[in-house]
Structure formats: C-alpha cells, structure tokens
Write a structure and sequence with these properties.
By secondary structure, the chain is an alpha+beta fold. It is built from twelve helices and seven strands.
C-alpha cells in the first residue's frame, strides 16, 4: 500500500469494559476451579499412595511374622526331635545297663543257691520298677549301679576257688574282665583302672599255699571294683555319646539359626518399609534393609512424580497448544520445556529431579493459564474490534474483500467504489491498548511520500473519522485521533502541493 500508515489507538467504552471485566472474573473463577480440582486429584492420589504403602507394610510385616513363626516352629520341632533322639539314646543305654544287671541277677541265682531269696526278690522288683521308668527322661545310672553293686556282693562268695579250681584260672578271668572293659576306660576312669590293677596285683600276691582265706576275701572286692570300673567306663561312653549328640544338636541349631538369619535378611530386603520398623538382627541385615529402603523411597518418589504429572499433563499440553494459537510461542516453549524436563527425569529414573521438575511445572501452570486468559481477552477484544471496524467500513460504502490473522493481529482489506483500497491491521500494543493501522492506496489526497511542510489527507481522514464515530456509537470502541507521519498540527491543513501531478495513494 502507498502512503504513510495511519494510526489510531482505541479505548473501550465503560459498558464494554464492564463486560470484559465480567469475562475476566469468569475466567479467573474457572481457573481457580481447575486449580482446586487438580489439588483434589493430587490429594486423592497421595492418599491412595499412602494407603498402598500402609497395605504393603502390613503385608510385609505379616509375611515376616509368618516366616518367623514358621522358623520358630521348625526350630522347636528340630529341638523336640533332638530331645527325642537323646531320650531314645538314654533309654537304650539304660536298657542295656538293666539287661546287664538282669544277667547278673540270673547268674547269682544260678551260682549262689544260698543267696537270700528276699534280697533277690527285692532286687528283681526294683529292676522291674526301673524298666518302667526307662524313657521318662530321668537318668537311671545311679539306681542301676546300686543294684549292680548289691548283686556283686551277693555273688562274691561264689567266686572263691574251689578245691578243683586253681588260682590262675580266677586271675585269668578277672584279667579278661578288665581287658574287656576296653583301653578307653583308662582315659575315662583312670582312678578306677589304677584301683583294679592294684587289687589284681594284691590278688595275684595272695595266690599260693596257705593264702586261700586272703585270696577269697579279695575276690568280692576285685569283682566289685571291676564292675564299678566297667560301669564308670560305660557311663563315660554314654556321656560321650550324649555329648556328641549335644554337639550335633548345637551344630544343627547353629546352622538353622544361620539359615534363619539369612532368610530374615532376604525378607527384610524384599520389604524394606516393614524392615525399617524392625531392629536389624545384624549389620549385614541392616545394610541390606537400608539399601532397599533407599530403593523403595526412590520408587515411591517416581510414582509420586508420575501421579502428579498425570494430574497436570493434559492441562499443560492444552496450554502450550493454545499459547501457539494465541501467538505467544515463548509461553508455549516454556511450558513444553517444563513438561519435557519432567518426562526426561522420569525416563532416567531420577526421582529427586522428577519431583523438582513436576513441582516447577505445577507452579508454572497457573501462571501460564493466567497469561492465556489475558491473551484470550485480548484476542476477543481484537475480534470484536475487527468486527466493529468491518461493520462501520461497510456502512460507509466500503466493500470487504478479505481478512486474515497474522500472529497477534487481524488484517482486513476493503475497497471503495472509486477503486481505492484500504488495508487495516487490528493489533494490540505492549500495554494491551488496541490499535488500528491503515494502509491506503488509490485516494487522491494520499501521496507516496509526505511533503516537507506536511501531508494533508483531509478526505481520507474525514472518511476514517466517520468510521470511527460509527464504531463508538454502536460497538463500544472509541478510536482516538488518526495520525500519520508528517501530519500537520490541527488548523494548519491545506491542499497538498502538486496535487494531481504525482502518484496518489
């Protein structure tokens, strides 16, 4: 278009300003409602996460308690099984000793026909009583040995050498008895072995002519000492077996305890939140629990960030798209960059960065929505102004030829019956004030270049002033004074020099 652009800033009438204030208040209310709804959604998601954490903690705690009860039950069962084995071994040892005493009782009855029947009956009765106590858990060794001693005393007189029996045979039998006790008996009962050896030496010294009485007197003592030595050795052997069994039990318990500790550590690692409420059983378990707790906190933070992103993501994407539509690409880029920062942190599993980024997006969104509301109000104002301008121009005989939206402005094109063309840009200044910019071509009072003393466009100015008056009367817009480059002060207007000689526009 030829000629200098003509400008007119536009103010709004009070009625339009009131309507615009109502629209602004309505949009603010809608914005607050959206913010409150997002806050409710965030609170609901936080409550749901808290419930899920509580449920996981309770399930984990219940699982740990169940496993501990099972481990305690297993240990109790193992201890009971071991105690049962010990009782069985003790019962077997007691039964063997009772069998030996019973054999001795039979032998006394056989070789000692003069033995007191009442004493033998009492021993037999006590023997039966002790058999009934086998397996009760009470040790019977002392009672059995007491019966053995009583029988040995009853059988001592049958061991005296007979006229047809030599001393050597008796000594040989005693030596065989001592040897039968076994070499380990000297370790378990060294005092008993020494005493038996001394008695055999004394018995061997008493063997010979004229010593029959002394030899016979020593027989019972030797028999009793050998019997006691054998019993003591047997008790030591039984005790050794019991000790070995106890060592096995302790080893089994230690292995079971180690296995249980390993299992508890694994359980604590799988349920770190529940493990934090428990005292760590050892340093390794505590380390595993802390590591798992860190992992759980990071996972919880990522879930929280994802939930909070889900609340604002649709709104943020809509804000970015609307900002581009309303010709504010910088705002769109800010929102999109904030959104990308959150998704990038979530993709990288950076929990702290994700929480920080989603917080920044949540803070940016209300600001961006408020900015969009102002952009939308400005767009509506421009749209209304463009419509009012079109109606007023057409009312003055202009023909509307086309219109377009260019960034944050509307461009309208008109033509007069004379062929003159008017291009009007409806824009908004930085402070929000609407402005009309005219480019005119084909009017006789418009030159390509303003004259040195000023460019006078009386007819064009009058025509546009009438358009502006019509807009103020009907649509609530009040265009200001029309200005252009080189316009002379009011009251100094005159015909353009050389009118009709140069190209007009």
């Amino acid at each position: 278009m030829s000629g200098s652009p003509k400008y007119s800033t536009v103010s709004v009438a009070s009625a339009y300003a009131r309507r615009e204030a109502q629209r602004r208040a309505q949009r603010e209310a809608e914005r607050r409602s959206r913010q409150e709804q997002r806050a409710r959604e965030r609170a609901e998601l936080a409550a749901r996460r808290a419930r899920e954490r509580t449920e996981r903690r309770e399930r984990a705690q219940a699982d740990i308690e169940r496993r501990r009860r099972e481990a305690a039950d297993r240990r109790a069962a193992e201890q009971e099984a071991h105690a049962s084995r010990v009782r069985e071994e003790q019962a077997a040892a007691d039964s063997r000793r009772l069998d030996e005493v019973n054999d001795l009782l039979v032998r006394v009855r056989t070789v000692e026909p003069d033995a007191p029947a009442a004493e033998l009956a009492a021993i037999e009765e006590r023997l039966v009583q002790l058999r009934g106590e086998v397996g009760s858990g009470e040790p019977l060794g002392g009672a059995v040995e007491e019966l053995r001693g009583r029988l040995v005393l009853l059988s001592s007189r049958g061991d005296a050498p007979q006229p047809d029996a030599g001393y050597d045979a008796v000594l040989a039998r005693f030596e065989q008895q001592l040897a039968a006790v076994g070499p380990d008996a000297a370790l378990h009962d060294p005092e008993g072995r020494r005493h038996c050896t001394e008695l055999l030496d004394r018995l061997r010294a008493a063997a010979g002519s004229g010593a029959a009485t002394r030899f016979a007197a020593l027989l019972g003592t030797v028999e009793h000492a050998l019997t006691r030595h054998a019993g003591t050795a047997q008790r030591h052997a039984d005790q050794e077996r019991l000790r070995a069994a106890e060592e096995r039990r302790r080893s089994e318990e230690h292995a079971a305890a180690r296995a249980a500790a390993d299992q508890v550590a694994e359980e604590a690692a799988e349920a770190a939140e529940a493990a934090q409420a428990e005292d760590a059983e050892d340093a390794e378990e505590a380390g595993d629990a802390e590591e798992m707790a860190v992992h759980e906190r990071r996972a919880a933070a990522l879930v929280e960030a994802a939930d909070r992103l889900g609340v604002v993501r649709t709104s943020a994407e809509a804000v970015a798209a609307e900002a581009r539509e309303l010709a504010d690409p910088d705002l769109a880029v800010r929102v999109e960059r904030a959104l990308h920062t959150v998704t990038g942190a979530l993709g990288a599993q950076a929990a702290e960065d994700a929480l920080e980024a989603v917080g920044a997006l949540e803070r940016l969104l209300p600001e961006a929505e408020a900015r969009l509301d102002e952009l939308q109000l400005a767009f509506t104002r421009r749209s209304d102004l463009a419509e009012a301008l079109q109606d007023a121009m057409c009312g003055e005989g202009f023909t509307f030829t086309e219109g377009s939206e260019q960034g944050a402005a509307f461009v309208l094109r008109f033509e007069r019956p004379s062929g003159a063309r008017y291009e009007t840009t409806v824009a908004t200044e930085a402070d929000g004030t609407p402005v009309l910019v005219y480019h005119v071509e084909g009017e006789p009072d418009v030159t390509l270049h303003p004259a040195a003393e000023g460019a006078v466009c009386d007819r064009t100015e009058d025509l546009l002033e009438r358009v502006h008056e019509a807009m103020g009367e009907r649509d609530g817009f009040l265009p200001g004074e029309l200005t252009w480059q080189g316009k002379p002060p009011r009251g100094q207007a005159g015909p353009l020099p050389g009118a009709g000689r140069g190209r007009r526009g």
